Amino acid sequence: MTIRIGINPISWCNDDLPSLGGDTTLDTILSEGAQIGFEGFELGNKFPKDASELKAVLAKYKVACVSGWYSGNLAQGDLADEFVACIAHMSKLQTQGCKVVVYGEVAGSVQGQIDTPLFKRPRFLNGQEWARYGEKLNQFGAHIKSQYGLTLAYHHHMGAYVEAPSEIDLLMQHTDKNSISLLFDSGHCYFGAAANKEAVRPLDVLKKHSARVVHVHCKDVRADVVAASLNQQWSFLQSVLQGAFTVPGDGAIDFALLIGVLREKSYAGWLVVEAEQDPALAPPVEYATKGYQTLRALI
């Protein structure tokens, strides 16, 4: 099993809430992450947009580019427009030697709206809508694989069309395994099940869809905060600010069981520590170190 441990810079600074860690420099993020032992970083808003500049700054700290989030609009937009919109991002990842791109569906999403409760998220209403969406994804995934050598890793996410475990099932059902793969996010999976009153554990989802998992976000949850979020109808960002998420080893999810499934399936790829938190309340080095050490001990 070839596994590398990376991290998302969201431990230091937040793309959706730039005020969180806004004064933290990229040099601080990269130097601290490298010193902890992380082999690579996913991209964030402080990273250079130019592919050559990005490659140079990552080389300075001897870390790899794991991948980068791509904001897709296929649920409501046109495929032809997406082909054009993705060029710069996909080319940048290709230049870094990335294998996957993180696809996040943002059409209609409420994940970035601090005053909008999660229950107001968009939903596909019937099988025809799912089928149309799946076909768009299939064509887009095939396009970026042929043009850029990238595998589309679909990120199920709170506040978006694909949030609940049952919706992950439908996504997999309506897409081609040769075009669309899955990014498994343990924290969003836990939260998504709770928000939609589905008695499904992250472990169950991973077991069911492990054959299509090509990228893993290792995010833990504080179960009491998740429950409070749903009871009080918080937005996604309010949930983040209240501490719904944390790093592996600091919450309710058993990562030993998850890593066990990945080992059984001979998973080869990145485990990415990702925990949307306020760095003023959750010191980045302390929490990133805990996440790294938890995963390192398990693999």
Features:
alpha/beta; nine-stranded parallel β-sheet; 43% helix; globular
Order of helices and strands: EHEHEEHHEHEHEHHEEHHEHEH
Number of strands: 11
Radius of gyration: 18 Å
> Helical amount among residues, as a percent range?
40-55%
How would you characterize the largest beta sheet?
A: 9 strands, parallel
Structural class: alpha/beta
Protein model, in words:
The chain is of the alpha/beta class. Helices cover 43% and strands 16% of the residues. It is built from twelve helices and eleven strands. Helix 5 links the parallel strand 5 and strand 6. It is globular. The N and C termini lie close together (9 Å). The model has no long low-confidence stretch (mean pLDDT 96).
Chart the SSEs and their pairings:
Elements: E1 3-7, H1 26-36, E2 40-42, H2 51-60, E3 64-67, E4 69-72, H3 79-85, H4 87-95, E5 100-105, H5 127-148, E6 151-155, H6 165-173, E7 180-185, H7 186-195, H8 202-209, E8 213-218, E9 220-221, H9 223-232, H10 236-242, E10 245-246, H11 255-264, E11 269-273, H12 284-298
